[in-house]
Amino acid sequence: MRTSAFFSSISSPCLPFNRTPSLSRPFYAHSIPRGKNGAWGREVLLLRLNCVSERNKGAEPAQSEFETTAPDPAPSESSSSYSSGNHGDDDTGISVYKWCTVLGGVGFLETAYLTYLKFTDSDVFCPVGEGSCTTILTSDYSYVFGVPLPLLGFLAYGLVASLGIQLDGKERGFDSGKSDGEIILLGTSTSMAVACAYFLYILSTEFSGELCLYCLTSAILSFSLFFITLKSFGTQHIQKRLGSLISISILVVIVLTASYNTAQPVSPSLTNMELPYFETKVTKKSSPVALSLAKHLHSIGAKLYGAFWCSHCQDQKEMFGREASKLLDYVECFPDGVKKGNKMDQACLDVKIEGFPTWVINGQVLSGEKEFAELAELSGIKLEDLSQPKGKLFFP
């Protein structure tokens, strides 16, 4: 005998509390397949109902699970950030500007310490590398056009830290006028990274085998600031400013190269070799202007400091010529040659020479080769006066 039963199952404990069941899903009919004897099993009709309170009848019905939620509209271009990069947080959730503030602050403290040592002529504490730090940080490469390199780093790191604080504050305040500060930050970090790359090259070539922990720390800080800032701008805006970044990099290299070529420093490699003194000869004949200028420089006590191995010193003498160069008050800083343990002449040490050649004119210490017009102006006369007839210019 085939039996068929339909059950309508309503399971709701809230019915006694005067709540009305509401149908939220369609009916589902389930049948059990035939048995081996061909008889049908029981069919069960399940009706799934949900309870809705009467006091919520007027409320907006709940969203069906079959309803789709419309995607949020894409953010408009005006609501996007200044660049396509992450100007807010990086992958770690820390603001890019906070990173700039922290890294710039560390570099600021390091260079402040080195600047203090530079101006007080104090020895540098070297955690590793023994005396390498002192050798490198007191060399002629530690100046750029006479300005101590730690002082330049002190100013650069201070600028980065202050920009990081300023831009981070504007970001929290939803200030849209950040672009100028961001561009300055990118330009500063780029110039610092290029300068550090230049100095690392000098360390590897001129100070081979020596280690300067402060130099490496500064390089790591500068490169980190550069890559963090670069990432925050994004590819699209970096491409727009690629020309400016290349120009900044070239300018930094030109300035540093000009600084170190203007005055030829004492190469650290010379201290590790013996170079006997030899006399250099000037072959060019002196012009009347060169003779007049040499006499005038001698009369006011101007002095030229140089080294026998310095090619720039030789070029300076050749500019004056054979007769005029003998009238100059020339001071040889290595009269006994160069060898290990042999120091520069005391007269040169007293002047605190930063490179060769060096002029001392009217109390001014001037590094590098100088042209006639510049020497005449520094000595208090005009170059055209040297071309006048002999009686119009008095020379003792």
Which SSEs are present, and which pair or pack?
Layout: E1 20-23, E2 28-31, E3 43-46, E4 49-52, H1 96-120, H2 132-137, E5 143-144, E6 147-148, H3 149-172, H4 179-206, H5 213-240, H6 242-262, H7 288-299, E7 303-306, H8 311-320, H9 322-327, E8 329-332, H10 346-351, E9 358-361, E10 364-367, H11 372-378
Parallel strand pairs: 7-8
Antiparallel strand pairs: 1-4, 2-3, 5-6, 7-9, 9-10
Helix pairs in contact: 1-3, 1-5, 3-4, 4-5, 4-6
Describe this structure in words.
This protein is α+β, with helices and mostly antiparallel strands and 396 residues long. Helix content is 44%, strand content 9%. It is built from eleven helices and ten strands. It has helices spanning 96-120, 132-137, 149-172, 179-206, 213-240, 242-262, 288-299, 311-320, 322-327, 346-351, 372-378; strands at 20-23, 28-31, 43-46, 49-52, 143-144, 147-148, 303-306, 329-332, 358-361, 364-367. The strands form four sheets. A four-stranded mixed beta sheet has the order 8-7-9-10. Strands 1-4 form a two-stranded antiparallel ribbon. Strand 5 (143-144) and strand 6 form a beta hairpin. Helix 1 runs antiparallel to helix 3, helix 1 (96-120) crosses helix 5 (213-240) and helix 4 crosses helix 6. The longest helix is centred in the middle third of the chain and has 28 residues, at 179-206. It is elongated and about 70 Å long. It starts with 19 loop residues before the first strand and ends in an 18-residue tail after the last helix. The model is unreliable at 1-32, 34-87, 173-177 and 389-396 (pLDDT under 50).
